[in-house]
Write a structure and sequence with these properties.
Elements: H1 2-7, H2 12-24, E1 32-38, E2 45-47, H3 56-62, E3 69-74, E4 77-78, E5 84-85, E6 88-93, H4 100-117, E7 121-125, H5 134-139
Parallel strand pairs: 6-7
Antiparallel strand pairs: 1-2, 1-3, 3-6, 4-5
């Protein structure tokens, strides 16, 4: 982890935004997601846009077809016991069509992003359309 933290950076604003999103979504009634990307030149990890997505189809439409992304997702679920659970996960979106340079760039920062965002779990996804089945993926492992 030490080598990743020297290579990749987060601005103080990004770190504050990560914390605010995590704390603000813990009691959310609707799914909430934000997309993060790595700047290839500065190696800074930052939010791709200033949008909080509440619709999984809109989120899927925003993910690029040839470039990886990190998606932080808070997704309220009602468990079989009737209890409400709000898992906070990171989706590591890695399309099969992206080039090797980008694969390595995002793979190298995955654990740093996971730890900085303080997510409970990482879900790897190769196709944006898989977001439609996110509820089964989240409900399958408690």
């Amino acid at each position: 982890m030490a080598s990743e933290s020297r290579l990749y950076t987060f601005s103080p604003k990004t770190t504050a935004d990560l914390r605010k999103f995590r704390l603000g979504t813990s009691r959310a009634k609707d799914p909430q997601a934000v997309i993060y990307q790595i700047d290839k030149h500065t190696l800074e990890i930052a939010q791709a846009d200033n949008v909080i997505y509440t619709n999984m189809q809109e989120l899927a439409d925003e993910l690029p077809g040839h470039s990886p992304r990190y998606v932080l997702l808070s997704y309220p679920l009602t468990l079989s016991s009737g209890r409400l659970s709000v898992p906070y996960v990171m989706i590591y979106y890695l399309p099969v069509t992206c080039n090797a340079e980008l694969r390595m760039l995002y793979a190298g920062a995955k654990e740093l992003m996971r730890n900085t965002a303080e997510v409970g779990r990482v879900i790897e996804m190769a196709d944006a359309e898989d977001l439609e089945e996110i509820e089964e993926k989240l409900g399958g492992e408690q």
